[in-house]
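[job 0417] fold request received: Membrane protein YkvI
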Amino acid sequence: MKNVLKIAGAYVGIVVGAGFASGQEVLQFFTGFGWISILGTVAATVLFSFLGMQLLQIGSRLQTDSHKNVIDLICGRILGRFVDIIITFFLFGVAVVMIAGSGSIFQQQFGIASLYGSLVMTGLTIVTVCFQFQKVISAISLMTPFLFVMIFIVTAFSFVQYGGNVTDIFQLGKTENTAASNWMISAVLYVSYNIAAGGAILTLIGGAEKNEKTAGLGGLFGGIGLGLLVLLINVTMLLNFQEIQSVDMPIVHIANEVSPVIGYLMSFVLLAMIYNTTVGMIYAFAARVIPSSHRSFKPSVISFTIVAFFASFVGFVKLVGTLYPIVGYLGMTLMIAVIVAWFKFKKQHMPENDLKMTS
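[job 0417] inference complete; emitting structure tokens
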């Protein structure tokens, strides 16, 4: 059970990045649709659990040290080659966004120039990724419980301080600033983006776990944990709907309403989540380009991370607006491929020595 929870924590830690923990992505993909967004969080929970379980189990069965083997199995050699190239590119791209995001938080919350915030994140990432990946998993999962605690505090405060009638929430309708025209499509796109960004790392985490059942349960619990976080953040913002629509970091804004101390703690947790995501993305990108056992792996990690640091000068907002929508549609391709492959192997009743994709 210890390994299951560690894998589940790593899953949550990898997916939770700047937009997730701050509430901005949840606002656009869920809360903007009003009360029906609660159903969207349920759909997202199911998809996170199913897809995480499948990717982790595949990685465990193949004992993979690169996402390429898993992608080839799921998508086939021709489509797999295209998906592999695109995913590898976006692993680096998301790392760039995270480094830029860390700089933005330092500037907005602490009044420190964004350059220094990005430098700190770059240095921490290099040091962490140069350890063995098993240690990276432990580092990633370490901060996840703190995120749950902070979100629970903010949600509880929102319920206590809510001045209206709870039924008023059910009167909220769709706003203009939503990620898609339909709440279900938006929920699916949200999951697809996160799977595109984090799916490669999930296969590596699965590859580090010899027990396929343990890997699968880690994916299941991690998906449930992600769904719970989305639900809590969504409900919190529904309770504060009028005041957070024009705020860049809604959850941090609400946390500051609770207490300045809580606001600062939330900011530190947010930075930790960005760190988690940056570490995971850089490791997966480097492991795809150069095997982690190769002697040039660590020097390459240093070079890749420094390049990502300089690329982050483009700016956090611009990077998010350009990269994230494309990643979402890429994730849709991968997500559909995983589901189709699951049905395919289930229908064929694969023998025991072949890959089992169900738990």
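[job 0417] notes: Confidence is low (pLDDT under 50) at residues 349-359. Residues 111 and 355 are 52 Å apart (CA to CA).
[job 0417] exit 0
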